[in-house]
Write a structure and sequence with these properties.
Elements: E1 4-11, E2 21-28, H1 35-46, E3 65-68, E4 71-74, E5 88-91, E6 98-100, E7 103-104, H2 107-115, H3 137-144, H4 154-158, H5 160-164, H6 171-181, H7 189-196, H8 210-214, H9 221-241
Parallel strand pairs: 1-5
Antiparallel strand pairs: 1-2, 3-4, 3-5, 6-7
The protein binds iron/sulfur cluster and FE2/S2 (inorganic) cluster.
Length: 247
């Protein structure tokens, strides 16, 4: 007989439940299966009403983030075999409103992301005829790590500060701001600093570091926030000691 494992899944159907509940399904255990395969088995064979998001199945789209046994994970990269003998508990990411079952609402992040201007800002665009902006491999290396973010939101779900202070801009948006600040083609660091050194920015972070631990792409948002704090403090000090120098 094929071995099985119990998958305990959070359910929330707003038209029929006031509070989330849990439902347990027995799914086949296969060595090469990830949690997302088990959820798809439930959806296809046992209960078509179960709702969850996914797309690429290869750790690229960032849409399959959920809590697995309490830890934020990409379910397409979390092997069932790591959770034996089960049960494997699957819940929506913390701190985001739940739309249905395992699907959360992300518009708070989308608003914050836009605020930090994650695009290249130029004071003056040079004419097309002058060609592309060139960059050396070393210049690329300075921000490449931060550009690997897939907006999966695991870092927000792991961040106790975001849980306590929902206005906190949060780890991924700050890491993405830093991705552009460190880009040799960008001239927007001062504009971003104004937003990020404000009351909902970097100073909210107490360096718990969970964001970096859960990041599936090794982005290190905690490191980005610490780098930013140093930049903001240096900027503030210069403004106090050399007020004419920062103008
Ligand atoms: S920083 Fe990492 S954990 Fe956070 S959204 Fe980006 S990829 Fe996901
Ligand atoms: S399904 Fe795309 S990252 Fe998991």
């Amino acid at each position: 007989m094929e071995p099985t494992v119990a998958l305990t899944v959070a359910r929330y159907r707003p038209e029929q439940e006031a509070e989330p509940t849990f439902q347990t399904y027995e799914v086949p255990f296969r060595k090469d299966w990830v949690v997302l395969d088990a959820l798809n088995y439930v959806k296809d064979r046992l209960d078509g009403s179960l709702s969850f998001r996914w797309s690429c199945r290869m750790g690229v789209c960032g849409s399959c983030g959920m809590k697995v046994n309490g830890t934020p994970k990409l379910t397409c990269a979390a092997f069932l075999s790591d959770y034996l003998p089960g049960p494997v508990r699957v819940e929506p990411l913390d701190y985001f409103p739940v739309v249905r079952d395992l699907v959360v609402e992300l518009s708070d992040f989308m608003r914050k992301l836009k605020k930090v201007k994650p695009w290249i800002i130029r004071k003056e665009e040079r004419p097309l005829a002058e060609g592309a902006y060139l960059q050396t491999p070393d210049e690329l290396d300075t921000y490449k790590q931060f550009s690997m973010c897939i907006n999966c939101m695991l870092c927000y779900s792991a961040c106790p500060i975001y849980g306590l202070e929902p206005s906190f801009i949060g780890p991924a948006a700050i890491a993405l701001a830093q991705r552009y600040n460190m880009d040799s083609r960008d001239e927007g660091a001062a504009e971003r600093l104004e937003i990020l050194s404000g009351k909902d920015g970097i100073w909210q972070c107490t360096f718990v570091g969970e964001c970096t631990k859960v990041c599936p792409k090794n982005v290190d948002p905690a490191g980005a926030i610490q780098q930013y704090k140093l930049t903001a403090a240096t900027h503030w000090l210069k403004a106090v000691l050399l007020p004419w120098g920062t103008r």
